[in-house]
Amino acid sequence: MAIEADSSIFEAAFEQRVAVVTPSTLYATLKLIEQLWRYERQSENVVKLIDRASKLHDKMVDFVKAFEEVGSRLDQAQTAYGTALDRIKSGRGNVINQIATLGVLAGKTKKELPKYLVDDAEIQNQHEISDKND
Question: Each residue of 94-110: pLDDT tens digit?
Fold first, then answer.
């Protein structure tokens, strides 16, 4: 073979980034190249996975912040609901009792206030009266 006669051929090929193979080393060389390409594809996939994981993490952080804001707004809405309900059913001459009385006086109403509201407003009214008498 030429390489056996002149070893500089191998060195010149190596400097040109050419691999010299023989029939006996060809299969092993091809398998090595296949493995290197597989590792290269896996490395590219790892980079893509890391990028995707980073983006998913950021999306999840944004979602959690928005979800916490929803919870906060629900709490605010619940507080506002409680305040508004207290304003119409509390105190002497509260709105619920007045509306219920008007309904009784009118005689012919098509709709009724929910019984629990009327009962609760009456209890609140009784407490107000008893507190003033004490």
Answer: 898 888 888 888 888 88
Number of other CB atoms surrounding residue 103 within 10 Å: 15
pTM exceeds 0.85 for this model = no
Q: What are the helix (H) ranges across the chain?
A: 2-5, 8-15, 23-89, 95-106, 115-133
- Asked whether the beta carbons of 117 and 89 are under 8 A apart, the reply is yes
102: containing domain? 90-134
Instruction: State whether 105 and 128 are in the same domain.
Output: yes
Who's near 112: CB < 8 A, 6+ residues apart?
Answer: 103
Round to whole Å and give the CA distance between 35 and 29: 10
Start-to-end Cα distance in the chain: 121
Compute CA 103 distance to the chain's CA centroid, rounded to the nearest angstrom.
48
Asked whether 89 and 95 are in contact (CB, 8 A), the reply is: yes
- Residue 30: name the closest of 125, 38, 87 by CA: 38
Same domain, 83 and 104: no
